[in-house]
Amino acid sequence: MIQEFKDFIAKGNVMDMAVGIIIGAAFTAIVGSLVADLINPIISLFLGGIDFSGLYIVLGSGEYASIAAAEEAGAAVFAYGRFIMAVINFLIIAWVVFILVKLVNRAKAATAKPKVEAPAADPGPSELDILMEIRDALKK
Question: Where is this protein found (predicted)?
């Protein structure tokens, strides 16, 4: 059983998946910082200082100065601003992954050896040509 586990772990697919998960987690942190620290301020600048992550509606009674205060008080909060930020994060991550995949595919295509087409072998006469030759030979 232990040997089977070692064989399973040693397979390339498992190791590739583990590396992908680790890189993905680090990539998520980078994109999160990109959105929070660079993109959101630009969006906020164009929208007159609106911070999407702070947009919310209290479901029920009560007035709260911030979403953190409402959540601390235990109020039900409809945090639609966080959802907007999650959508923006997703779109940015999807765009960056698309660009990366496109670059990787371009690099693979550049390093791939072009297939050398073998010269087309002379297929010779077709069956119809042979039959016509036989017919002509029989007519003589």
Answer: Cell inner membrane; Cell membrane
